[in-house]
Amino acid sequence: MKPAWDKLIDAYEGSSSVIVADVDCTSDEGQSVCTDNNVEGYPTIKYFTDETGKSGEDYGGGRDFDELDKFVKEKLAKKCNPATKEDCDDQEKAYIDKMQAKGVDKIKSELERLDHMKGADMKADKKQWLMKRIAVLKGLAGGKSEL
Fold it and tell me: Are the C-beta atoms of 4 and 64 separated by less than 8 Å?
């Protein structure tokens, strides 16, 4: 499970809505965290949302990367809504305004251009911004009536 978890940590590094971390409950530093969160067996995966409160909930799904990633995307990650700008950070909001001003044709051509860049080797922060822009553009292209 460790390689899948490490891959999940890398995938959400820099996310504005998801933090993936691990705690070594056998270390002096980790023992209090685990005790405070009622972790008794290892490995234990817990997640925390507004709905779960400070106590969190135990994750009981699959432990390979695809299952963990699916859970994060469906249950934990907040997605920017380009139509309302809800859950959008300041950078996304500025990008939405900029692209809406350019119109549907430019949005579609920019989406195509960025889609071709997805496989490129780049730093994590650049990759994250690329993926955010693609998501915004897809939202804008699907919501043509709002342009």
Answer: yes
- Is 147 a residue whose pLDDT tops 60? no
| Domain of 30, in residue numbers | 2-76
Would you say residue 7 lies in a domain? yes
Q: What single-letter amino acid sits at 92?
A: E
Question: Do residues 112 and 137 both lie within one domain?
Answer: yes
104 and 70 co-located in one domain: no
- Distance (Å, whole) CA 128 – CA 118: 10
Look at the chain and report how many structural domains it folds into. Answer: 2
Vertex 62: Cα angle to 55 and 17 (nearest 5): 50
Host H or E run for residue 57: strand 57-58
Q: State yes or no: pLDDT of 96 exceeds 50.
A: yes
Does residue 16 have a pLDDT over 90? no
CB of 6 closer than 8 Å to CB of 68 = no
Q: Is the pTM of this model over 0.85?
A: no
